[in-house]
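In practice, a research group might receive sequence data for several interacting partners and want a quick structural hypothesis before committing to experiments. The following worked case mirrors that situation: the sequences arrive first, and a predicted assembly follows.
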Amino acid sequence: MKTATIEATTNQYDGLEPLIYELSAAGRIGVNLPEPDVPLSDLPADLLRDDLNLPEVSENEVVRHFVRLSQFNHAIDTGFYPLGSCTMKYNPKINEDAARLTGFAHLHPLTDVEGAQGALALMYQLQEWLAEISGFAGVSLTPAAGAQGEFAGILMIRKYHVDRGDTQRTKILVPDSAHGTNPATVTMAGMQVIELPSDKEGNVDLEALREACAGEKAASIAGMMITVPSTLGLFDRNILPIVQTVHDAGGLMYMDGANMNALMGVVKPGELGFDVMHYNLHKTFSTPHGGGGPGSGVIGVAQRLMDYRPGPIVDIIEEAAGDHDAPLYGWTQPPKTIGRLKAFHGNYGMHVRAYAYIRVYGGTGLNDVTRHAVLNANYLRARLKDHYKLPYPRICGHEFVMEGRFADSDVRALDISKRLMDYGIHPPTNYFPLIVPEALLIEPTETETKQTLDRFVDVMISIAGEARENPDILHDAPHNTPVRRLDEVKAAKQLVLCCAPLMKQVD
Amino acid sequence: MADLKFPDDVRYAKSDEWVRVEGDIATIGISDYAQDALNDIVYVELPEVGDTFDKDDSFGSVESVKAASDVYAHVGGEVVEINEALEDEPEIINADPYGKGWMVKIKLSGEADLSDLMDAEAYKAYCEDR
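A structural hypothesis for the assembly, expressed as tokens:
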């Protein structure tokens, strides 16, 4: 018996996926709709057009196309992802199970409170836990993501001052190592940024801060935004004097909680004297970063800002009648609220996932998470310090920054990052914080094994060797990915976000 | 570092701008060190002719594939000319930062105070130390 030989390929497109338009065949359809059981009515003639170019593909082809595309991607479920400042920890599948329970997933946001008591009880408990973890009087779950949490926090600070008739406070202090969202938030809120330099150890320059708050200047200070630990991964040794200086000037303290994975269960920002902070549930509490869903930027506030929180807030409307009764939960809006920020109740699916995460770990477990996150980062730092320059060589928090450059080589941080992709490792954050030349910001998170960390170190050491001996292998990297080095300059200057018809014009 | 230029007919700021004063006109751009550190520049935001700035003000920004940076005036006065060629070809700054890559010309509102700025030698030493 004779069989035809067909060459095996992993992918019929040799690693590259065509546009869905190129899979199109005239007349092919993906979905069969049932015969209508109501009279048909014609669409308005002025809304009809015959130039709408849509791909005609079967359901099977659509599924394969997008699954293949997804497989070109690097994800936390496929490999190590040490993207500094982003806390790309593993997202436990039990979170997904919880979020898919029909009582949560199928609940309509306009359901009467009486019919949504379980969902409200979960939000109430999450509010309580997040208030306890941050050391604050209360929280608001509504902000959609970190940047909206920042925006809410600064609007609250602004309203707090204005309500007291203190309308001259229009300036917010921001360290030069800050996330770009901090100055953007201040500007969005109609206030002005005063940038503060860092000292040689990576702390805020305390003298510069005191100078900015000195004498008559104090009356214009609305507050300060600071990330703890800083974006350099360093715990500011002067955090208490910093808080004190700004409070003495009459300003309020905002903590950017992006780096809570170095504090959770160990340090409470409220006890450090902060007035308001945001969490990123999609970082610290293991909910997905995009793709799998939106983020969540829950804010925590000190007592004096409680009345300004954006609502709705879940509260107990009627206490339980006895031990065998449940309380009645409902919605409240704080009396001086800055208003609503988001439709309905924030990104509720993320609340369920964060609840599941906290429930699984418990208080001791969350403390362990933080300790392991800090240990993993310091392990990498210690093993790499003789191979890469550490601009701030001291114990770090959950992440640390190295310089991706060498005196005896012309490779840059970008080349190192591209080379890492050849080993199936997601690059660290590049070129941030801005105050470190050729920055590589590395955050392993607590969810990686020692073997994974050791392999990363071995790869990084090997790349440092290549930078001297064979720099072109770095300049030309990546070599093993579906596409090679992309032309980022052209992509930035000639932005094309559209599909097949436009692609042809560009070519 | 060795290949970077530090011409001595301009003065330099810690924030990496250069300023060249001729008569009552100051021309401002970013240094060779700055363009090299930023890498490929993809967008330049410039003020409009007639805008006025104080010496501490940012008059625009430079954006590369790596980062966006504010650019500071270091002199006070009114913008009399902007380098419109940068709108379509921001990469001119990478190629010729002190010449065709200039950004704005400002008519000084008073005596230029360049005492905070460095000469070429001091700026070069400052860059080597970073």
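Before designing any experiment, note the following. The two ends of chain B are 11 Å apart (CA to CA). Chain B has a mean pLDDT of 93.
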